[in-house]
Amino acid sequence: MTRIVYIDGDQGTTGLRIVQRLRGRQDITLRLLPDDQRKDPLRRAEALNACDVAILCLPDAAAREAVGWIQNPQVRVIDASSAHRTDPGWVYGLPELEAAQAGRIAAASRISNPGCYPTAAVALLRPLRDAGLLPEDVALSIHAVSGYSGRGRAGIDAYEGAGAAAPPALQVYGLALDHKHVPEIRQHARLTHRPLFVPAYGAFAQGIVLTVPLHRALLPEACTLQRVHEVLAGHYAAQVRVQVEAVRPADAAAMHLDPQALNGSDDLRLTVFGDARGEHLLLAAVLDNLGKGAAGAAVQNLDLVLG
Questions:
Q1: Can you tell me the distance from the alpha carbon of 234 to that of 94, in angstroms, rounded to the nearest whole number?
Q2: CATH code, 275
Q3: Which of 32, 116, 210, 281 is such that its CA lies 20 to 30 A from the CA of 55?
Q4: Predicted pLDDT of residue 132
């Protein structure tokens, strides 16, 4: 018997991508509400309690409300919003976080899908924290540029909608320095201090490049280019969709990081750069914000839940 998967919020950016990925699968019955019922609380509550797995693609407040409607203890939830990503009652849906995480997700009834920026930041930082190469009280700055689809429907309309004015090539935002992804990064990277996070949108549809600069003088002596690469490569050795590389200064001079390089995939590329003087390191991650950063991660977690 196939299991019923209901998507609440299937018309949003992430929801539409998940629907595209799940249509035609023979191991599930995909449940979507017709247009005239999508916003009906009664119909949504009925669908939530009649499914095996609910995937929530909703704003944070609406996601919390939807979870409150679930009375059936057999329903398992994957929440793609940021509503529950730091909630201790929910399992963080990053299977690559540590060795036991995929098993925790497979057994969980409540799973919080990671944010796109935190997927990149935590993937870079958590293995280094666990290996002792970054102290827990390290002060970090994180910069990231995402495609405009990271804003959801509003971002897509601003760049692609009828009569849309030509927006700037780059828009740095989050200038109140209180981005909603910061608590998620801090908690799951096991940091004492809030990292300083500066995000931006570029004039391209999707893709992310995220960087974390490190001053070696402020870090343990063992935190070298070679050792950082060894730790990351070892941590992700069994992960076929995570690529890890280290780049020597002589080779880095001719390189650039393309945020769109992995678009259309669920891959994650992690790179470590170092300067010739041995004073600085740069951690970098590239991923598709709509793939591994959203819909792809939700489907990955769904597959774990379904076994």
A1: 17
A2: 3.30.360.10
A3: 210
A4: 97
